[in-house]
Design goal:
The chain folds into three domains: 215 residues, NADH-ubiquinone oxidoreductase 51kDa subunit (Rossmann fold), CATH 3.40.50; 84 residues, Ubiquitin-like (UB roll) (Roll), CATH 3.10.20; 90 residues, NADH-ubiquinone oxidoreductase 51kDa subunit, iron-sulphur binding domain (de novo design (two linked rop proteins), Up-down Bundle). It is 41% helix and 12% strand. The protein is built from 17 helices and eleven strands. Bound molecules: flavin mononucleotide and iron/sulfur cluster (SF4).
């Protein structure tokens, strides 16, 4: 929409900025040039003053994270760009990379300079074949033009960037599981503390940032921290890219100032609910953030306001459900995802997500038992904060919020013994094929008397 400030998506629609020359023509690498003219401490101070908060889900202040990196440890320092983007509903990092790959590389180079790192990694989600090739080409260009390598932009600073493709696992977006995977181990989370800033990749100080977070950094260096703090609310400054999907007229990524009411995103940008139907539910930041309802249309999209409303900004992935959507089915699908993606390290998550998923399967199939609702209501309290990592808390979100706002839909499924939205139930579902006959019992040992007879 015209009139709204766009920062990291300002050049979307102009394919000319994909190659190096076009990016530079549009002012690219000016932020890195300015950073190199400052001391690393000054760069960190500038990013700290901007109030930039991580866009990967947790919203941790970026400059503060960089300031935790110890110097003179005798070990190398690493920077890792988290391009795993596997939170359901999120597709902003992919488009940021595809449309302006050098913007991410510039952010990585500034972050690396700020923490005195000479080796950075991009952890690219396994399924991202095309975005991965776009990045590879951009990396080749950056080396060819002296943006990376021995003398970054002609300075004394040296930086190498390695593109690493993951194998495709949701948990590998979690920063410590990502590090395990990058080191060649199974992608499972590690104990925190120590946090990666002090003990990360190969037990060395490591900064991990999301793609979108890093994309803001060149602009902050180019325009100054106070320019950035002038956009959005005081505690959530800047803009945010919202990935809107589901029942809307115009799904897509929209960059808006933090604090924009959800109604504006939905009605003015995404074109409203599909077919003019009524809004039923929406997630503000992917499936792991508690869903909200039509009562929350005027909630501001920023870290604090969404927390006050009982949810979270997360990745800014807004999934919209309308009056025809079955919440039980939506929650069932989300839980099935978490049960599948649980890394299996701890019992509450490995077993809990699977059991919840089973109960939801039978409720949606019209086979729910009266006691299932009490069981489901009991489960969030038993699972929340019981996992080794936040994946399990994320899995609880759709279940707990679904029950909080739409309990009567769960009740109807059980009472009517069918899904009230699709009409499917045991009588409309093809009967299960008969169980295969049990195998013939293995013959027992032949008595010795028989053998000798
Ligand atoms: C289960 C799980 C999955 C995650 N997936 C991603 C992801 O795909 N991309 C991402 O940037 N952060 C992801 N995160 C958050 C990261 O652990 C980490 O907080 C983030 O990369 C830090 O970057 P930021 O400070 O720039 O947001 C995930 C966290 C959890 C618990
Ligand atoms: S909570 Fe789930 S994903 Fe996290 S460590 Fe435990 S089993 Fe793995």
């Amino acid at each position: 929409m015209s009139g709204t400030p766009r920062i990291v998506t300002a050049h979307w629609g102009d394919d000319g900025v994909v190659p190096y020359e076009g990016y530079v023509r549009a002012g690219g690498y000016e932020g890195l040039r300015r950073a190199l003219s400052m001391s690393p401490e000054e760069v960190i101070a500038e990013v700290k003053a901007s109030g930039l908060r991580g866009r990967g889900g947790a919203g941790f202040p970026t400059g503060l994270k960089w300031s935790f990196v110890p110097q003179d440890t005798g070990k190398p320092t690493y920077v890792v760009c988290n391009f795993d983007e596997s939170e359901p509903g999120t597709f902003k990092d992919r488009e940021l990379v595809e449309r302006e790959p050098h913007q991410v590389l510039e952010g990585i180079a500034i972050a690396a300079y700020a923490v005195r790192s000479h080796l950075a990694f991009i952890y690219c989600r396994g399924e991202f074949l095309w975005p991965g090739s776009v990045l590879r080409r951009a990396l080749e260009e950056a080396y060819a033009h002296g943006v990376l390598g021995e003398r970054v932009l002609g300075s004394d600073y040296r930086l190498d960037v390695v593109l690493h493709r993951g194998a495709g696992a949701y948990i590998c977006g979690e920063e410590t599981a990502l590090l395990s995977s990058l080191e060649g181990y199974r992608g499972q989370p590690r104990q925190r503390p120590p946090f990666p800033a002090t003990e990360g990749l190969y037990a060395s100080p490591t900064v991990i940032n999301n793609v979108e977070t890093l994309c803001f950094v060149p602009h902050i260096l180019r325009n100054g921290a106070s320019w950035f703090t002038g956009i959005g609310p005081e505690r959530s400054p800047g803009t945010k890219v919202f990935s809107v999907s589901g029942k809307v007229e115009r799904p897509g990524n929209y960059e808006l100032p933090m604090g924009t009411p959800f109604r504006v995103l939905l009605e003015e940008h995404a074109g409203g609910v599909l077919g003019g139907r009524a809004l039923k539910a929406w997630t503000p930041g992917g499936s792991s953030t508690p869903m909200l309802t039509a009562e929350h249309l005027d909630v501001a999209l920023d870290f604090e306001s969404l927390q006050q409303a009982g949810s979270m900004l997360g990745t800014g992935a807004v999934m919209v459900m309308d009056e025809t959507d079955c919440i039980v089915e939506a929650v069932r699908r989300m839980l099935r995802f978490y049960a599948h993606e649980s890394c299996g390290k701890c019992t509450p998550c490995r077993e809990g997500t699977w059991w919840v998923s089973r109960v939801l399967d039978r409720i949606e199939a019209g086979l729910g038992r009266p006691e299932d609702l009490a069981l489901l209501e009991d489960l969030p309290g038993n699972l929340l904060f019981r996992g080794f990592c936040p994946l399990l808390d994320g899995a609880v979100s759709p279940l707990a919020s679904g029950l909080r706002y739409f309990r009567e839909e769960f009740e109807r499924h059980v009472e009517e013994r069918r899904c009230p939205f699709t009409g499917r139930g045991p009588s409309t579902v093809a009967p299960e094929p008969p169980a295969p006959a049990p195998p013939e019992p293995a013959p027992g040992p032949v008595p010795l008397s028989e053998v000798l007879r």
